[in-house]
Amino acid sequence: MAFGITRDELRKWKASIDNGKIAFITHFWLDDRFPDMKTVTKVGCKDLGRLAEWGSGYGLKKEWIHIRKDGYSHYDLLGNKQLQILREEGKLYQLSRLTQIKPGSS
After folding, report:
1. Cα–Cα distance between 49 and 53 in angstroms, integer?
2. Which of 15, 37, 45, 63 counts the most CB atoms within 10 A of its CB?
3. Which top-level group of life is the source organism from (predicted)?
């Protein structure tokens, strides 16, 4: 279950994907499969080849892309990998607004 984002944030994420960009959205998330995880970052792109190439730069496998029929296929980033990638992409603010992690922290 996702929560902690606005409809406008979701609309902007989808619009970025529709425009062929690598798009990030971070929100609170509850899933019984990952009881210790409280947030997830979804990184999507309509060009699956581009998304897979981007992911490989962070050690993500193309098989890990959540393929969606609606066109909003994405990687789910959790835990330390989420933190690492958001930091390296300059998007740590997305996580910091939901947690105690601050954008300037290392």
Report:
1. 6
2. 45
3. Bacteria
Picking from 81, 48, 78, the residue whose alpha carbon sits closest to that of residue 63 is: 48
Query: pLDDT tens for residues 58-106?
Result: 999 999 999 999 999 999 999 899 989 999 999 887 777 766 665 555 4
Q: What is the pLDDT of residue 103?
A: 55
At 43, phi and psi to the nearest 5? -115, 115
Task: Give the SS3 label for residue 93.
Answer: helix
Greatest alpha-carbon span in the chain: 37
Please measure the distance between the N-terminal and C-terminal CA atoms of the chain and give it in whole angstroms.
29
Q: Own/partner pairs for 50-53, CB < 8 Å, 24+ apart?
A: 50/20, 50/22, 51/22, 51/75
Element housing 50 (H / E): helix 48-56
CA separation for the pair 5, 72 (Å, rounded): 16
